Amino acid sequence: MSTSQTVTVRLARNRFLLDEEESHIEIDQEVCRSTGTGKRLVAVCPAGVYTEREDGTIDAEYAACLECGTCLAVAAPGALRWHYPRGGFGVAFREG
Amino acid sequence: MTSPEPDFDVIVVGGGPAGAVAAHQLATAGLSVVLIERGETPGSKNLSGGVLYGRVLDQVFPGFAQEAPVERRITRHVTTFLTPDSAVSLDYRGGPLADPVNAVTVLRAKLDPWLVERAEEAGAFVMPGVRVDELLREPGPHGRPQVVGVRAGDDELRARVVVAADGVNSFLARSIGLRPQPPEHHLAVGVKAVVRLPREAVEDRFGVSGDDGAAHAIVGDCTHGIGGGGFLYTNTDSLSVGVVLRLDDLLRSGRTAIEVFEDYLDHPGLAPYLRGGEIAEYGSHLVAEGGLAMVGDVHTDGLVVVGEAAGLTINSGLTVRGMDLAVGSALAAATGVAEAIAAGDVSRDGLAAYRRHLDESFVMADMRTYAKAPAFLERTGMYGAYGELAADLFRDVFSLDTTPRRHLAKVALGAFKRSPVTVRQLVSDGWAGVRAL
Ligand SMILES: Cc1cc2nc3c(=O)[nH]c(=O)nc-3n(C[C@H](O)[C@H](O)[C@H](O)COP(=O)(O)OP(=O)(O)OC[C@H]3O[C@@H](n4cnc5c(N)ncnc54)[C@H](O)[C@@H]3O)c2cc1C
Ligand code: SF4
Q1: What's the predicted TM-score (pTM) here?
Q2: What pLDDT score was predicted for residue B408?
Q3: What DSSP element (H or E) covers B238?
Q4: Burial level of B179, CB count in 10 A (0-12/13-18/19+)?
Q5: 3-state secondary structure labels for all residues of chain A
Q6: So what's the pLDDT on residue B100?
Q7: Per residue in A70-83, pLDDT tens?
Q8: Burial A40-68 (b: 16+ CB within 10 A, else e)
Q9: Whose CA is nearest to atom 31 of ligand 1?
Q10: Of all atoms in ligand 2, which is nearest to the CA of residue A44?
């Protein structure tokens, strides 16, 4: 077995305090499509939060987010609304 | 109309090294301080490679390396050039690295709570688990909008000065137009795992004992030629292992960050160190890579920006430094803010005292020294062909195949002739490197 494992296995080692009530990620599918942002999100996200369907729709599994902000840094203006989860929620590193 | 009285002299947003040290210094100076941190506990949102250059923190907390939760003191710095199937290392060990303590490895979920406790002990009021949503602004005495506090949910808190220590994304300073969103080539994403290993395995594999540790900087094939690099650092009973990938290059490469990270961890050059290790945690974080060009404005009316929120990191290609610069900027800010409050002028003119202290400190001196590093690192030679060149050279030296040994200079020349690196490129990179690093 390789050391790296899969991203799902790696994420399963982490502690997350899931905010069941609100997602901190919102995608504007129209802008995402017209600007090619979807593929960029998929490429950069280390947690595999974003996946692209065949028709180009982007899904976001916000519960796995590591809160780095990389997606926002590469998104075209208006394609993505991303902010930190509410206080106390989200990833909780025990090592860092 | 008179504004309501402030609740505190200073609000510090962010409980990383910058915020914790700023709060500690301001509280020690007798000011009333609140430190607001969005993480459930300080450090729970934070991640770094983990080599803390400790001299400046030692000035704030003398002997901290004995008291604080640090992992190991770095006594070996190894630089490894990887190619797809080989590794060439330069190993630097030396007494000067250990005494006085130059660098230690840290895990942020352990270090940051200790730093925040010191601030609390000095009298700062700490509010964890609270996300600041926005800066409050009102027309100031000079007719310009002045930061007068923060809003978190339905609560508003007012202060004479707000210290934005909110890290690389710097949302607070961006929200009022003080700092721009950085371009992609000024940011890199760090992807990291903490790999658990028995203490003895760490010591045997890295050739260290006791509390000593090693820091390996890895260049060459480790990122598939994407600007950035790899690191492999020893903790007490784990390793910090990861890559830093410049965003513009990552996007150009057509690869995903996940795939680059996995290829790195599974690289044969790393296998002997990681064998049998269990991933204990997986994380990611942005790094500011713009160097001096990214610093820009760090104060305005009622607000100062410190640490990585102010773009204060240095990536020399072999080391990422941010924690010590965060501490250094916090010291400058605490002095400047205390002076401005004492003088009764917290406008941008009064708070310019912070900028003056910052400019005079080692932080800006080092930022200026390394000012050319980002441009140098954008030359891809550092990440691909040079690793090949080094490997080729060492193969010639060490693969004894009965052909007569040649003088090293000739070997180097031979390896060089086979390499895609041109003399011109080598000379100009070498020169740029000497000046930049
Ligand atoms: C992969 C990687 C490797 C690195 N390696 C090293 C290294 O070896 N050595 C080194 O010195 N540096 C290294 N760095 C850089 C270093 O981690 C940072 O420069 C340093 O952490 C900056 O400290 P800071 O206090 O400015 O910000 P941070 O440590 O990021 O702290 C910011 C704090 O603000 C909080 N916050 C943010 N927004 C809000 C809000 N709205 N409300 C409330 N709280 C908020 C965050 O939760 C966080 O606690 C590395 C970075 C990365 C990503
Ligand atoms: S913040 Fe980082 S981990 Fe979260 S979705 Fe964006 S890129 Fe992925």
Answers
A1: 0.92
A2: 60
A3: strand B238-246
A4: buried
A5: CCCCCCHHHHHHCCCEECCCCCCCEEECHHHHHHHCHHHHHHHHCCCCCEEECCCCCEEECHHHCCCCCHHHHHCCCCCEEECCCCCCCEECCCCC
A6: 64
A7: 999 999 999 999 99
A8: bbbbbbbbbbbeeeeeeebebebebbbbb
A9: B16
A10: 7
Hey, which bits of B38-186 come out as E strands? 51-53, 73-83, 86-93, 103-105, 125-128, 134-139, 145-152, 155-164
In the block, tokens 């978190």 appear at: B152
Residue B167 C-alpha to ligand 1 middle, in angstroms?
5
Identify which has the larger pLDDT, B407 or B43. Answer: B43
pLDDT in tens, B144-196: 999 999 999 999 999 999 999 999 999 999 999 999 999 999 999 999 999 99
Asked if residue B401 lies in contact with residue B338, where contact means CB atoms within 8 angstroms, the answer is no
Nearest CA among B229, B231, B244, B238 for reference residue B191 = B244
Identify the band that residue B136 occupies on the pLDDT scale cut at 50, 70 and 90: very high
CA of B282 vs chain A CAs: smallest distance (Å): 6
Residue B284 near ligand 2, beta carbon < 6 Å: yes
- At B101, phi and psi to the nearest 5? -55, 120
Q: Which residues of B322-351 are buried (b: 16+ CB within 10 A; e: fewer)?
A: bbbbbbbbbbbbbbbbbbbbeeebbbbebb
Query: Tell me, what amino acid is at A62?
Result: Y
Q: Which residues of A touch B130 (CB under 8 A)?
A: 87-88
Q: Which of B184, B281, B287, B308 would best serve as a mutation to test chain A binding (most A beta carbons within 10 A)?
A: B281
Q: How many angstroms separate the alpha carbon of residue B257 from the centre of ligand 2? A: 11
Token pair listed for A61: 């599994």
A80-82 vs B8-13, strand pairing mode: unpaired
State CA B212 to chain mean position distance.
21
Pick among B40, B222, B282 to test the A interface (most A CBs inside 10 A): B282
- Side-chain-side CA neighbours of B149 within 13 Å: the count stands at 15
**Low-confidence winner among B23-32, B186-195, B264-273 (lowest mean pLDDT):** B264-273
Q: How many CB atoms lie within 10 A of CB B61?
A: 18
Task: Establish whether residue A58 lines the binding site of ligand 2, counting it when its CB lies within 6 angstroms of any ligand atom.
Answer: no
- DSSP secondary structure code for residue B284 in this structure: E
Average confidence score pLDDT of chain B: 89
